[in-house]
Write a structure and sequence with these properties.
Helices cover about 45% and strands about 15% of the residues. The chain has 9 helices and 4 strands; from the N terminus they run ααβααβαααβαβα.
Length: about 210
């Protein structure tokens, strides 16, 4: 199917059928998140993938509607950084040097530019920026899943404290931004039969 067909078929699944996604397919979806565009290339987030039943069961109390978590194949948790410090930036440039086989000294101007940009931001601005990057990742994951014929449900309604406790997330330095359940829709989920409702083109698009 082409990408418009895949996106038309996609909806936020309310109940999955417990079937497990093949590892190769899951890998492809996760690679799309890895390849996501990221401001300055810093990727100020991490992507946790809950696949064991034990972890998913522990996470159920964090969600106000547990049906997706109890029936999905995998649950992706995108965690945004609250701070981007010198150590993180240094690690980023060491990685650039290794991947591109470039002496780190040649990257000094770029590094100084990033440091200056980051240092001008408040902690709230850093976190707001990091969350925006996380949502770009979310969109890529959902799009790739649709192309792979895998169903999804993005979820923002959850208890931070429960997820932080289960996954050992440090609330001082990072925060869960959004989660994404992956799997295959259940035949019992009647939402799949509803027509997709979107703004008509004349209300959504303005050519200028």
């Amino acid at each position: 199917m082409n990408y418009l067909e895949a996106l038309s078929r996609r909806y936020s699944v309310k109940k999955f059928n417990n079937e497990i996604i093949p590892q190769e397919t899951l890998h492809n979806i996760l690679e799309s998140g890895k390849l996501s565009a990221s401001s300055l290339g810093l990727q100020p987030y991490k992507i946790l993938v809950a696949e064991s039943e034990e972890i998913k069961q522990k996470l159920i109390p964090a969600f106000y509607n547990p049906s997706q978590i109890s029936t999905c194949s995998h649950l992706i948790i995108i965690v945004s950084k609250k701070t981007v410090d010198e150590s993180y930036i240094n690690g980023y440039f060491r990685h650039i040097s290794d991947v591109r086989e470039t002496p780190i000294e040649n990257l000094e101007l770029f590094k100084n530019s990033i440091n200056q940009h980051i240092n001008q931001k408040t902690s709230d601005e850093i976190f707001n920026w990091a969350e925006k990057q996380s949502y770009i990742v979310l969109a890529n994951l959902m799009y790739a899943a649709a192309i792979e014929n895998i169903d999804t449900c993005p979820m923002e309604g959850f208890r931070q404290d429960v997820i932080e406790d289960v996954l050992n997330i440090n609330p001082e330095t990072e925060k869960v931004t959004v989660t994404l359940a992956l799997g295959y829709r259940s035949e019992e989920d009647h939402f799949q039969h509803m027509k997709k409702v979107r703004k008509p083109n004349e209300k959504l698009f303005k050519f200028i």
